[in-house]
Design a protein that fits this description.
The protein is an alpha+beta fold. Helix content is 19%, strand content 33%. The strands form four sheets. Strands 3, 4, 5, 6, 7, 8 and 9 form a seven-stranded mixed beta sheet that branches. It has a four-stranded antiparallel beta sheet with strand order 14-13-15-16, with no helix packed on it.
């Protein structure tokens, strides 16, 4: 090494093509899951595809025994997939012969992805969150294989939220449940809030950073007692009851004109939805 130069810090950056190859290899083995063990999308094969946003084509067999094809889009190793990415990937997936399903995989998604997701004409879009373990460098992939880490690719259902204006102009959010996508049948069904661990509200969202101004917990399995055991302390049950709720406390309309709601499931997957509300309390 030339005199006076510093040694390289950390491992060299992984080539983008190598990253996509690693993701596709794991996707072929693990498939795409939701929160139900039996409802897993298993690919019979995956082949590379020379697209800009679509990098592979996968074949799978649905619950009726029919062989179908899916376009697969892999987001960047370092970065967020936004609504523009999803839209462009959908355009590619619909060109030529077209595909009935687009699987978009990423470590993180932007707040407006939900507006492009689910259905784009005849194309169903599957927003799939990748486990952070997949970001390990190539040398550590043997560890990933040996641990057999589950839920590498997870479909997080769209939360069913209602934002309403109360008498006097204050706003309130209610979490009604979760719309769960079954990748084996293509059906979307409504589910309870049991699969949701917690949800947060930024009541004055600036579209740059999410600030937790309201925090609530939900889900099944006596979370109150679990929290007591985890903290090894007594918790005021009356105070806890204000946090263990699917209905938020009333709050003033945002000065920014927007609020954001973040919902997190028991696997740590999260989704962010943004709403527009004028200071008068009128919702858009």
């Amino acid at each position: 090494r030339p005199l006076g130069t510093r040694p390289p810090v950390g491992p060299p950056a992984r080539d983008a093509a190598d990253f996509v190859a690693v993701i596709l290899e794991n996707l072929r083995k693990a498939g795409v899951q939701n929160t139900v063990k039996q409802e897993r999308l298993v690919f019979d094969r995956i082949e590379p595809y020379a697209g800009t946003y679509v990098q592979a084509i996968g074949e799978y067999t649905d619950a009726a025994g029919k062989t179908l094809r899916a376009a697969i889009s892999i987001g960047p190793e370092y970065g967020t997939v936004d609504s523009t990415w999803v839209k462009e990937a959908a355009k590619e997936a619909r060109r030529g012969e077209g595909f009935p399903l687009l699987v978009v995989c990423a470590f993180a998604f932007g707040p407006y992805v939900g507006e492009e997701a689910r259905q784009w004409g005849s194309l169903t879009i599957l927003i799939t969150r990748m486990n952070p373990d997949l970001a390990m460098d190539t040398a550590d992939q043997k560890l990933l294989k040996s641990t057999g880490a589950g839920n590498l690719f997870m479909v997080f259902g769209e939360p069913d939220l209602e934002l309403r204006t109360l008498p006097g102009g204050k706003l309130q959010v209610e979490l009604r449940g979760l719309d769960v996508y079954d990748p084996t049948t293509g059906e979307i069904r409504s589910d309870t809030t049991d699969e949701i661990a917690c949800w947060f509200i930024d009541t004055d969202y600036n579209e740059e950073s999410f600030f937790v101004r309201h925090a609530y917990f939900t889900g099944a399995g006596e979370p109150y007692k679990k929290l007591q055991r985890a903290l090894k302390a007594e918790i005021d049950e009356e105070a806890w009851s204000t946090l263990y709720s699917t209905v938020s406390r009333p709050f003033d309309p945002p000065s920014t004109g927007k609020i954001a709601v973040k919902v997190i499931n028991h696997y740590g997957d999260e989704v962010l939805k943004v709403y527009t509300a004028k200071r008068s309390g009128h919702l858009e």
